[in-house]
Specification:
elongated, 0% strand, 7 helices, mainly alpha
């Protein structure tokens, strides 16, 4: 058999295999995006469980210009391992730039910090003094919101010039 005969036979078999392979890749990409989107929303489902009394709490350090800097330092010590140095999120934990976080009330964020989400791997931080938890909330609220899931923070975020 000549090379051309082999090539015709190979094309006859390879073309359908290539089509099937492309379809499988597209299906996997769509499934991965759906799974990621689902996981993203599961992370923030806890916000709906926050009691109203906790949700309406006001951050007593809201007007303190030093609170975000102090919160950033605490975040680096206690939170960055899971959420990333810039709160961009990692495999273990979601981005804290997400619209859901930025739209949450300070009281909601404080409640989640205090009580954790243990079944999702978020530890309870109730032993951290209350003023320090509010400082972390101040830092989180200083972050810019990003649309979509899994978005990474920019390096131009408020407080990015702050020292660790």
């Amino acid at each position: 058999m000549s090379f051309e005969t082999y090539w015709r036979a190979a094309r006859f078999l390879l073309f359908p295999l290539a089509i099937v392979g492309c379809c499988m890749l597209l299906a996997h990409a769509t499934d991965s995006a759906d799974i990621h989107d689902h996981l993203h929303h599961r992370h923030f489902a806890e916000f709906a469980k926050v009691p109203e009394k906790a949700r309406i709490r006001v951050n007593p350090l809201e007007a303190d210009p030093d609170a975000p800097l102090a919160g950033r330092k605490l975040f680096a010590q206690h939170c960055a391992e899971c959420h990333g140095a810039s709160a961009e999120g990692r495999r273990k934990a979601p981005s804290l730039h997400a619209e859901e976080v930025q739209a949450a009330t300070p009281g909601t964020l404080f409640w989640v910090l205090t009580n954790g989400v243990v079944r999702r791997g978020m530890p309870v931080w109730s032993k951290l003094p209350e003023p320090q938890r509010w400082q972390i909330v101040s830092f989180l609220k200083s972050l810019p919101a990003t649309a979509g899931t899994g978005a990474h923070a920019s390096h131009d975020e408020p407080g990015s010039h702050m020292e660790h």
